[in-house]
Amino acid sequence: MSAYLLRRALYALPILLGVNLITFALFFVVNSPDDMARMQLGNKHITQAAVEQWKAERGYNRPLLWNAQADGLARATDTIFYRNTLRLFLFDFGQSDSGRDIGFDIAQRMGPSLAVSVPVLILELALAIGLALVVAVLRGTYLDLWAVVLCVAMMSVSMLFYIIGGQFLFGKLLRLVPISGYDQGLAGFKFVALPVLVSVVAALGYGTRWYRTLFLEEINRDYVRTARAKGLGERAVMLRHVLRNALIPILTGVVVLLPSLFIGNLIIESFFGIPGLGSYTIEAIQSQDFAIVRAMVFLGSLLYIVGLLLTDVSYTLADPRVRLE
Question: What is the value of pTM for the model shown?
Answer without folding.
Answer: 0.83
